Amino acid sequence: MLALDLFRYTARLKVLTFAIGVCVAFIIGSFAFANGLNITVQGISDKFVSEGALAYQGSDLEASLVDPSQLLTDHIYASVAICVASVNGSERTFFAVNDPLSTLSQNLLPLPGEMLSGLVDPLSGPVNLTSDGGNVRLYANHTYSSTKFPAYWNLMRWDDLVKLRPEMKFNVSFMIFASSDAELLSSLRSQGLTAQGMTGILSYFAAGSNEVTSDLWLIIIPSSLIVALLVYSAVSMEVKDRARDIAILKAMGSNNRQIRGVFIFQALMLSILGALVGILIGIIVSYGISTSSSTLVSNSIFTLKVTETSMVVAFVSTMIAGLLGSVYPIYNAVRQTVREAMR
Amino acid sequence: MKSVTTLLIRKRTIVVASLTLIIFSATISVLIGIGAAPGTVIGNPDVYVITSKDTDSLLNSRLDADLSDLLLENGFVTNSSPEIFAFAEISGSAVIIRGVDFQAFMGVEGARLVSGAMPSDPSQGLIGWRLANRINAEIGDRYPLVGSFNPSISEVEIVGIITSSSGVEDELIVSLPMSRCLTGIATDSVSIIRVLGDTAQLEKMFGKDVPRFSIYDLAVANRILGIGRTTEVSLNLKNWGDANGTTHVMIVDMPGNITIIDSDYFINGSTTIALTTNYTFSLIGNHTVKAYISGAFPQNISTNVTVKGPFLSLVVPSKIPQYHYFTTVVVNETLKAVAGATVDIGGFDFVTNASGICLINASLEPRNYTINASSPGYESAIGHIEIINSSLLPPDATIRVYDIVLTPDVVKVNEKCMFAYYVQNFGNSTGSFQVSSYLDGALFTQNTVNLAPLRTRVLFYNASFSSAGEKTITCGQLSSTLTVEAHFELNPALIRLLVLYGGSGTLDPSRAELIYDTAKISEANILIVLVSLAVLSGMLVTLGVSISFMREINDNLKIIGILRSLGASSKQLLWIMFKEAFLMSLPAAAIGVMGGVVLAFLISSTGNLVAFGHFIRPVLDPSFLIAATAGSIAICVGSSLIAGLSVSRKGSIRMIRGLKADIVAQVDLKELLGDE
């Protein structure tokens, strides 16, 4: 087996190593792009403080019913109940707030017998509210303004809302916690609630970064295919050029497994060399792009970053593609007889 | 040569070359798609998007919501959709939320309702069909939403699914009130306004790097003045484009067409200059002062001036007890005392002294009288006085304002109005009094007057106002209304549009800086990265195709050696190989581009290529075809050249013997062949 000089055709080796290197650099560069995007987005996300958490049951607020007496938490929160009631033939959303610890930092308690309209299409005068659960008559003489609730929601007292939706006597629709941390969210979720932070752009960024990273996995497929083609071509040429060597080895008693091992080893070495060169090129190219980006774009905050994970992914995908690309030529190498090879 | 063409590179290389070029074309399509992804927020490419000035992103743009209505008043806009952006994560997907006026949005976007109905209240919304597929949303589903930047809560009920030709298919469309709750954007602001209409005209109005001019606030310091009096005429000229430029301005006095200003003015971008000149009106009568500007938006505005001959003004007390003395003051149009003027009351004549004053004893019967003041060369003036019974005269000082006169009572923005407060002591003792006047409830003027019994004083003030509207002046129990008109009578919608909104939207600082950072990553940075990736991809494919050619060359090395031994020069061999490789790669390029289109279409059909809530649609337009075709041909040329060069450098003997350069290098061929 050692009789075969692995890198006898150094010119070809150099070309192929460089070619595979460019493939790997492509993968590395693509992931550096995704990583840079994630890091930038993370940096921006860090500047937003998630203020408060929302917890409810199921998938929507209107149907949600949470029994606060069953909730295990030390965090302070405000309870909110909502219901849809009919007013003069049209349906409107009403809500009531129970906030004894001033979590919302705002007094949202109408006077007895009154309701407060939102600023959009406010009600006025005496209004009769009816729902499946009952009815109530209130006076709507004033409006409320809150940054936390939609301006088309209308505010009422909790006991009035219970008249429209009796199940709210002992339940709430959702809870607004003063703070938001992973431990609290995890605790709420473990108690069967749907919980999320109340700064939407943080979760938007997180989900968006994941999407971009997922997209870039698609880059690996075409790159790997080209690596496989390169290795296929290289090993095919090797097999042809070394037909006599193979014949001699066979004549000397080498079996197919040993012959196969020689070429698999060569394909692996080629892939390893290419991957290493590619990682190097990838780092240099990414650095070059980052630098040129900073030079060409004023106030650039975008930096490409090559991570260990992306290097491992590029390396492993190159190995797999190299091995797959060598399968057919190796099959041809071991298939031919000594006579055919010598000819 | 033809036989050689069929000998050296077999047609099977087309397969390998095609495969790599298909990948290249599809990659280019996806990269162009990634580059175009931020633009998908714009939606329908036919629409014109207006953002606030100096805003690099749709996200931190803030515009007055009124602009949308104002645009519709102008003929060159047919549909206008004010919109607000919010952000959320739903079922693990990043979701862009667009707050809209639903009817306006559908009109601008050209979107179509696939199923369901249009929202009928602010809690309802629409969803793009692609997003609906991604998060498995159905009509009737409700999604709780939290504020994008500040804590707030809302819930949207999906009532319709829409389709469109743009990125809107990946978005959740909610009402403007809901989006305001989610973003904290005030009720009078929106993020962007998308319009359909005369794009060329809109570009002239809102595009960057174009100087654009407007004139406003044409003002003549005195709307009523005496002949021969010089007054100040002023006009503001604004270049609300980003580029510097020159425009021609004319101000004329009509009738007579007398030129007041006729000059070119150079103004830097985003700058306003005030043109001011003194002008003397030489004709009695009603004048119209007109200002003109030429260019892409020719405008003219005007204001009216009344020029009188020399005229008198008369100051008299409103009430006086019988048999008491009172004074009248006669002044001219410049408020200078007129001596020798005749003051007639109830048929009795009095003459003013050098100070324009005459002292009169109210000896007439108690009733109302008209006082007439006249003087040669002046238009006469009249006043009114009530002579009352002496027993009604209060013993103490009783000072109050008995009249407010505004001259004129209708002015335009920045034009002067003279306020005259007539104060009289109606009591029989001397006293002082603080005269305070209020403009729309806020303190406007304040002055203390000392008045002897039955004396009168007039307090004059001049003021101008920078905003149009009705102004109420209150002094004691009296009030008067001043009308301040804007300079918008001629083509008001256009001039308001230019003056108020022409490239000068305001930026809401609230959290804008952070979002601005986000925007930065989507611009030139990404372009550089994408171009670099495209170049790498091109290199990759060139090497792939080259290797497949070299494999063929390797298989036919002996034939090439024979050609070389028959006398073919390196140049000829290079040309033979180049031509053959190129001819072989051309069909591969064609297949590659077409296959790339198919592959890109397949990628597109999976719907899995999503970034920050928007589907990355592989681009299959002419730009892609040009880029992919040019890239493929360049790859063909490059790889053919590599193949040709690799052949031209090989020696005939080593090719015929099938020896490789590395082996041959170990044998001194020259020595072997006995050349020396």
Sheet/helix structural class of chain B? alpha+beta
User: What's the story with the biggest beta sheet of chain B?
Assistant: 9 strands, mixed
- What's the mean pLDDT score of chain A? 81
Strand content of chain B: 35-45%
Shape of chain B: elongated
Summarize the largest interface: chains and residue counts.
Answer: A-B, 89 and 79 residues
Model regions low in confidence, pLDDT < 50 over at least 5 residues of chain B: 1-6, 488-492, 502-522, 661-676
Count of individual helical segments of chain B: 16
Roughly what percent helix of chain B?
Answer: 25-40%
Biggest sheet record of chain A: 9 strands, mixed
Mean pLDDT of chain B: 79
Q: What is the number of independent domains of chain A?
A: 2
Give the CA-based shape of chain A. Answer: elongated
**Secondary structure tally: strands of chain B:** 37
Summarize this structure as a short list of keywords or feature phrases.
heterodimer, A: 343 residues, alpha+beta, 2 domains, 8 helices, 16% strand, B: 676 residues, Immunoglobulin-like, nine-stranded mixed beta sheet, five-stranded mixed beta sheet, 16 helices, disordered N terminus, disordered C terminus
SSE blueprint:
The complex is a heterodimer of chains A (343) and B (676).
Chain A: H1 10-47, E1 53-56, E2 77-87, E3 90-98, E4 114-117, E5 125-131, E6 134-143, E7 154-155, H2 158-164, E8 174-177, H3 182-190, E9 194-197, H4 200-241, H5 243-251, H6 256-296, H7 308-335, H8 338-342
Parallel strand pairs in A: 3-7, 4-6
Antiparallel strand pairs in A: 1-8, 1-9, 2-3, 2-5, 2-8, 5-6
Chain B: H1 2-8, H2 12-36, E1 48-50, E2 63-64, H3 66-73, E3 77-90, E4 93-100, H4 102-109, E5 112-116, E6 124-128, H5 129-135, E7 142-146, E8 153-163, E9 171-175, H6 176-183, E10 189-190, E11 192-197, H7 199-206, E12 213-220, E13 224-226, E14 230-239, E15 245-254, E16 258-267, E17 271-280, E18 285-293, E19 299-308, E20 312-315, E21 319-321, E22 325-332, E23 342-345, E24 348-351, E25 357-361, E26 368-374, E27 381-388, E28 399-407, E29 410-412, E30 417-425, E31 431-439, E32 442-451, E33 456-463, E34 469-475, E35 478-485, H8 492-501, H9 512-520, H10 524-555, H11 557-565, H12 570-606, E36 610-611, E37 614-615, H13 622-648, H14 652-657, H15 661-664, H16 669-673
Parallel strand pairs in B: 4-9, 6-8, 13-19, 21-27, 29-35
Antiparallel strand pairs in B: 1-11, 2-10, 3-4, 3-11, 5-8, 6-9, 7-8, 12-14, 14-17, 15-16, 15-18, 18-19, 20-22, 22-25, 23-24, 23-26, 26-27, 28-30, 30-33, 31-32, 31-34, 34-35, 36-37
Helix pairs in contact in B: 1-12, 2-10, 2-12, 2-13, 3-8, 10-13, 12-13
